[in-house]
Amino acid sequence: MRFSMQKPHTRVVLLPLIMASVLLNGCSRHSTSEHYYLIATNINLEYWHTAEAGLQRAAAEYHVTAEMRGTGYFDPKGEVDEFRSVLATKPAGILVSIADPDLMRPEINKAIAQGVPVITIDSDAPDSQRLYFIGTNNLAAGRLGGERLAAQLNGKGTVVFFTNPSQPNLVERLKGYKDALGNFPGIKVGEVFDMQGDPGKALDKTEEYLSRTGAAKVDGFVCLEAAAGKDVAEGIKRHKAEDRVLVTMDVDPETLDLVKAGEIDATISQKPWTMAYLGLKGLDEIHHSPPKTLAGDYALNAYSPFPAFVDTGVALVDKSNVDVFMKQMGVH
Question: 189 falls in which pLDDT band (50, 70, 90)?
Fold first, then answer.
């Protein structure tokens, strides 16, 4: 009789404990064993440090592991090698900024075929099977910069561009600039200079441009990526060419200082922190709630579980609002 009285009591005590254990373990959606990667080139730039901060914030919120990998300079082939190395570890998902879409397309498609979700950020590979793109509307960024440049040149003059021609986001920005400048017949594009992935070439080329006079004079300078801005500004400063107009990209502290000093007329702000933050969260959702197939033609699917493009926005920064950006970023 004593035994029969204790047995139900034991069940009453143990059952809630067992249920609590199941609930706690079953509801733990995330794990540090889930490993996500962000791959890019030029990862020593402040731009990518900002993106990595967004990546790590999302990883901390979700209690997963995230890592940034890439090359220290513009190296599309090196980026492909990094992608392959990461894919071999069978990660939970990959974010990638595309340096060369032709090189990266087959690698992305291999990842998708293996069930590893891939989202592009910052620079896209639309002809690949990547699930979607998070980043700047680069046409809009170019048009914004082009309108500013035209206004500062009073609708006339010759402009030159510094770029890496194979990089998709820079191609789009250039098109946006040309669209905007096309409304001003007094402005002509003198040259689009290929830096060949080396922003150090920008200073020498700027000095060459500034040596031109008469009809060959260069009035406006545009840096379609962040790294060249300070070197072009330095060249203009050395030649005391205060009448020239320089428009750049991004809001690293050095660029903001040069805007505040008037050595850069304006720069176009992007949101790399937001790109990486939303990117990891997007990958996590796909990892835990995957579609029936990752290789679906979602671009043409009206019932797609994914957007085609998440626009993180742009803003023009000049002397009128540079202090706001400096305060937000803790730049003094």
Answer: very high
Radius of gyration of the chain (CA): 25
Please choose, from the candidates 42, 37, 122, the residue with its C-alpha nearest in 3D space to the C-alpha of residue 83: 37
- Checking if the pLDDT of 8 tops 90, the result is no
Residue linked to tokens 């008469």: 214
pTM of the model: 0.88
Asked if residue 40 has pLDDT above 60, the reply is yes
Backbone phi, psi, residue 309, to 5°:
-155, 130
What digits encode the pLDDT tens for the residues 84-122? 999 999 999 999 999 999 999 999 999 999 999 999 999
* DSSP string across 120-143: EESS--TTS--S-EEE--HHHHHH
Q: In the sheet that 266-269 helps form, which strands lie side by side, from edge to edge? A: 187-194, 157-163, 220-223, 245-249, 266-269, 315-317
Distance of CA 296 to the CA centre of its chain: 25
> Using CA atoms in the order 231, 227, 169, 69, what is the torsion angle rounded to 10 degrees?
160
Pick the CATH number of 138-269+317-329 from 2.30.30.100, 3.40.50.2300, 3.40.50.300, 3.40.1710.10: 3.40.50.2300
Q: Where are the beta strands (DSSP E) in 217-274?
A: 220-223, 245-249, 266-269
Coil/strand/helix, residue 65? strand
The answer, yes or no, to whether residue 52 has pLDDT greater than 80, is yes
Identify the architecture of domain 35-135+272-296 in CATH: 3-Layer(aba) Sandwich (3.40)
